[in-house]
């Protein structure tokens, strides 16, 4: 590259002399650090010296120039300079973008060339494999999808072709910017109409296991003269080879049949991997090889991998471990016990040994009942870094041993170093993080995932986990950064993991319909996926589609009735339907399976909510009290829950004290959102007590936290609405501007419409406010949004409609108790009464004033709504009407 171009790329703001000096210094530093004086050749046109340093890009270009497209494709493992950014160098960024696009075009052209060549020579399976890799880069590209479907059908895999059509239509349906191409549907219809040819199970291919030696000659029956088809008499050695082959084949056929028979009835057999036995004393192999083995086996179209979370639950039922106690290592003996308990046919047992500077890796497929080895594979890794590649090869052999044909393997066979990571250390950190998260050690898990991506910045699975963790922690920008990195390297993952990551991203972004569609696509390919129905049920639950959620969650429970989280979600869905009896039964089942869940912050609160709504207030208080003996977070949640219960009973003075304690407990690093929520609850209680100055102080404290920390759009709406109602318009406008910038999903935009409508009412634009509220309500019909709509109707002159809306809100306790809308729901009878009073409808006004007073028979007597309702009732009894305010 010419020097002058380098100057423009890296130092665009410097004059020529300064830029040249900077370049010379940079080249000098590079040569010194690498100890290579001849690193760079030339003076005015610079190039790297290929005798000193090579690059994958150069090798890639050479392979293409030589027509070696297969080597070029293997060299391309990710986008050009992925993750490399320079601030203040726009020309460099443009150059990178151009190079990145060019290399991507090159690899796609190479894949298409390979597919075309394979199809031309009649190798449709190979053509389909190349096209699958091409389709993974852009699954919406119609031309590639149609070609892939055609090659799959030509290779005899019609179901695979139809599955890709379904995946294509799912992806296009979820993308509003893309119209489905009718060619895909037309080809799918054609394939469905063609007569079906009944296929027999694929013939498994077997090799002699590495650790099986031929039996001694005397163990065999005396040979009889046998003539081969060619007319030649077989030798004694041929008899021995044939006998051993027959034994191996018999074992192999029984193994294949064990799994194939289940596969034929579309119910894949379960398989259980034991923990890898690490005999090397090198801790890096701990858990890392287990993660690689599981990822490889999960690609199988024939078996389902029994989840480790269910192993823990099985061990609890077997009374081998206590609840909440970490499971012991799952060695071969214990794995067989678990497998027998769960009706699993076979266990995969792995081991790694150190042999001088090499590593011997072994995988055995073991009958869970007898302990007999159904298959055994082994291979030597010359270097420590090659162990993952060896595991990859052995998993492929084991999959073949259980009966997967070459075509079945080819369809789901992403190399493990690509699907996970080439770094053993990174894989070790990732696996340890997953174990920590499963045991509830979230902070430790996040730290380990971060260390994994520090070791391998392209570790897509670790980035996906960090993205979800950041979203969960209310740090959406960080979550998006990790999700973006995971999505950029998505083509490295297995088909299954690609769908899982994309579904998780859509869920956290609030696009739950898309997440559901992606998980259904996953079930089309992996119908026995152990958790997909539970995830679909959770998304339906969050969408408020409780009946669909219950149906999906019940399907999940037929696969695993010991998953406490599924029972919790089922309880929430029944609660959404108002069926508190079934909700409490589901909660009881969940807590029996995992008692520690009762003291998880949000779950304790939601359980208490179900008790309150079913009329068991004393039991709810007892549940909340259990939180007061936990850590600071648990105590803060317990104090808040008790405060909300006191508000329901009209004991606002007691509620204020509880909210103050909750606020102090949450005044710690990384708890800004929790503290801000407690400030809002405290302000609401103080306003009802008539302490306006104190309430205003709390709102400003919440706003100060908003300026220092990232808050999600939903809470920005809560904060902004509270500020508007308190008349603090400049602060509310600041929150609105931030919300406008952050709104991304449909629910985010609904939050934005609510706060914009609240501002519009104060600005005298009531009709505009009502339009905003109605649009928001179409997406989010919660009580919180309904209250804003009712207020807007009143401001726009529809007093009767507003009064009816507040009456409806007052009667819908299950929609607002325990959350930010509680205060609006509690005072809704008074608001409705005041509106009827304003209309001159004394009877309805009196009814609602009395309803407000009757709901707090033992409440504080100095509450604003109580005093105003008492005064209004006295006036109505005297026959005096309320003065009508002027319309503005």
Task: Provide the helix percentage.
Answer: 55-70%
State the separation between the terminal residues, measured CA to CA.
71 Å
Helical element count?
A: 43
**What shape does the CA trace take?**
globular
Average pLDDT metric:
84
Poorly predicted parts: 197-254, 260-266
Largest sheet: 6 strands, mixed
Helix-and-strand structural type:
mainly alpha
Q: How many DSSP-defined strands?
A: 8
The whole-angstrom Rg is 33 Å
Beta-strand content bin: under 5%
Walkthrough of the structure:
The protein is mainly alpha-helical. It has 43 helices and eight strands. It is globular, with a radius of gyration of 33 Å. The relative contact order is 0.04. About 7% of the residues have low confidence.
List keywords for this structure.
mainly alpha; 6-stranded mixed β-sheet; two-stranded antiparallel sheet; 43 helices
SSE topology sketch:
Layout lengths: L2 H8 L5 H19 L5 E2 L5 E2 L7 H10 L3 H7 L14 H31 L3 H14 L4 H13 L3 H16 L8 H12 L42 H29 L4 E5 L3 E2 L9 H11 L4 E3 L2 H10 L14 H11 L3 E10 L2 E10 L5 E9 L5 H15 L4 H6 L4 H4 L4 H15 L3 H14 L4 H13 L3 H13 L6 H14 L3 H14 L6 H11 L3 H14 L4 H13 L3 H14 L7 H13 L3 H9 L6 H17 L3 H14 L6 H18 L2 H17 L4 H13 L3 H14 L3 H17 L3 H14 L3 H13 L3 H12 L2 H4 L5 H5 L1 H12 L2 H13 L9 H15 L10
Parallel strand pairs: 3-5, 3-6, 4-6
Antiparallel strand pairs: 1-2, 6-7, 7-8
């Amino acid at each position: 590259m010419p020097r002058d171009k380098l100057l423009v790329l890296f130092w665009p703001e410097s004059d020529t002399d300064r830029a040249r000096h900077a370049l010379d210094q940079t080249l000098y530093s590079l040569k010194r650090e690498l100890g290579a004086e001849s690193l760079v050749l030339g003076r005015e046109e610079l190039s790297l010296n290929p005798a000193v340093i090579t690059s994958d890009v150069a090798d890639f270009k050479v392979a293409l120039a030589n027509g070696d497209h297969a080597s070029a494709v293997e060299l391309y493992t990710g986008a050009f300079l992925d993750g490399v950014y320079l601030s203040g160098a726009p020309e460099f960024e443009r150059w990178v973008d151009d190079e990145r696009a060019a290399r991507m075009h090159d690899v796609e052209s190479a894949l298409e060339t390979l597919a075309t060549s394979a199809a031309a020579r009649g190798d449709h399976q190979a053509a389909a494999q190349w096209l699958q890799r091409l389709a993974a880069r852009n699954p919406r590209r119609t031309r590639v999808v149609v070609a892939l479907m055609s090659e799959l059908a030509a290779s005899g895999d019609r179901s695979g072709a139809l599955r890709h059509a379904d995946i294509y239509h799912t992806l296009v349906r979820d993308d509003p910017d893309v119209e489905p191409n009718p060619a895909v549907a037309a080809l799918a219809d054609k394939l469905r109409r063609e007569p079906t040819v009944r296929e027999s199970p694929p013939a498994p291919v077997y090799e002699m296991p590495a650790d099986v030696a031929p039996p001694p000659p005397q163990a065999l029956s005396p040979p009889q003269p046998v003539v081969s088809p060619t007319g030649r008499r077989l030798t004694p050695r041929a008899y021995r080879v044939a006998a051993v082959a027959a034994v191996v084949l018999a074992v192999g056929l029984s193994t294949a049949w064990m799994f194939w028979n289940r596969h034929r009835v579309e119910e894949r057999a379960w398989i259980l991997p034991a923990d890898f036995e690490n005999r090397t004393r090198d801790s890096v192999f701990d858990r890392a090889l287990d993660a690689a083995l599981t990822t490889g086996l999960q690609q199988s179209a024939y078996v389902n991998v029994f989840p480790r979370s269910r192993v823990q639950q099985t061990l609890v039922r077997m009374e081998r471990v206590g609840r909440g106690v970490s499971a012991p290592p799952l060695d071969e003996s214990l794995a067989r016990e678990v497998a027998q308990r769960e009706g699993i046919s076979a266990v995969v047992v792995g081991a790694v040994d150190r042999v001088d500077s090499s590593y011997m890796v072994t995988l055995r497929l073991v009958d869970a009942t007898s302990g007999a080895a159904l298959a055994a594979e082994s291979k030597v890794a010359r270097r420590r870094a090659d162990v993952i590649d060896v595991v990859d090869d052995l998993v492929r052999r084991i999959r073949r041993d259980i009966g997967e044909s070459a075509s079945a393997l080819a369809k789901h066979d992403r190399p493990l170093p690509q699907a996970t990571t080439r770094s053993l250390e990174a894989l070790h950190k990732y696996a340890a993080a997953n174990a920590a998260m499963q045991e509830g050690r979230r902070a430790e898990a996040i730290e380990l995932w971060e260390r994994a991506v520090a070791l391998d910045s392209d570790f897509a699975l670790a980035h996906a986990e960090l993205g979800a963790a950041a979203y969960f922690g209310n740090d959406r920008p960080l979550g998006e950064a990790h999700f973006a990195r995971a999505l950029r390297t998505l083509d490295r993952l297995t088909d299954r993991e690609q769908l899982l990551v994309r579904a998780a991203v859509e869920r956290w972004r609030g696009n739950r319909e898309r997440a559901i569609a992606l998980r259904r696509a996953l079930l089309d390919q992996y119908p026995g996926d152990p958790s997909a129905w539970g995830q679909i049920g959770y998304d339906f639950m969050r969408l408020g589609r409780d009946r669909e959620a219950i149906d999906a969650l019940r399907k999940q429970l037929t696969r695993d009735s010991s998953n406490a989280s599924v029972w919790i979600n089922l309880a929430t869905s029944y609660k959404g339907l108002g069926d508190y009896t079934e909700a409490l039964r589901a909660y009881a089942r969940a807590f029996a399976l995992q008692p520690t869940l009762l003291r998880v912050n949000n779950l304790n609160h939601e359980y208490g909510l179900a008790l309150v709504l079913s009329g068991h207030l004393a039991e709810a208080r007892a549940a909340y009290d259990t939180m007061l003996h936990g850590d600071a977070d648990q105590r803060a949640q317990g104090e808040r829950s008790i405060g909300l219960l006191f508000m329901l009973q009209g004991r606002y003075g007691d509620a204020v004290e509880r909210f103050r304690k909750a606020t102090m407990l949450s005044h710690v690093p990384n708890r800004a959102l929790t503290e801000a929520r407690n400030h809002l609850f405290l302000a609401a209680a103080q306003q009802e007590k008539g302490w306006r100055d104190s309430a205003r102080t709390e709102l400003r404290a919440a706003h100060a936290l908003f300026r220092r920390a990232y808050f999600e759009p939903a809470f920005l709406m809560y904060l902004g609405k509270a500020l508007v109602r308190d008349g603090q318009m400049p602060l509310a406008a600041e929150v609105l501007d931030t919300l406008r910038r952050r709104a991304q999903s449909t629910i985010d935009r609904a939050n934005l419409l609510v706060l914009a409508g609240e501002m519009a009412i104060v600005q005298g634009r009531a009709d505009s406010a009502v339009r905003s509220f109605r649009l928001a309500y179409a997406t989010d019909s919660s009580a919180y949004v309904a209250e804003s709509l009712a207020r807007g109707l009143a401001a726009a002159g529809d007093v009767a409609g507003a009064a009816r809306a507040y009456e409806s809100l007052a009667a819908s306790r299950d929609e607002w108790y325990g959350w930010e809308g509680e205060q609006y729901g509690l005072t809704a009878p008074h608001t409705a009464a005041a509106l009827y009073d304003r209309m001159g409808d004394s009877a309805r006004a009196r009814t609602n004033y009395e309803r407000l007073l009757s709901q707090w028979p033992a409440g504080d007597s100095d509450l604003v709504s109580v005093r105003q309702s008492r005064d209004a009732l006295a006036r109505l009894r005297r026959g005096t009407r309320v003065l009508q305010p002027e319309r503005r």
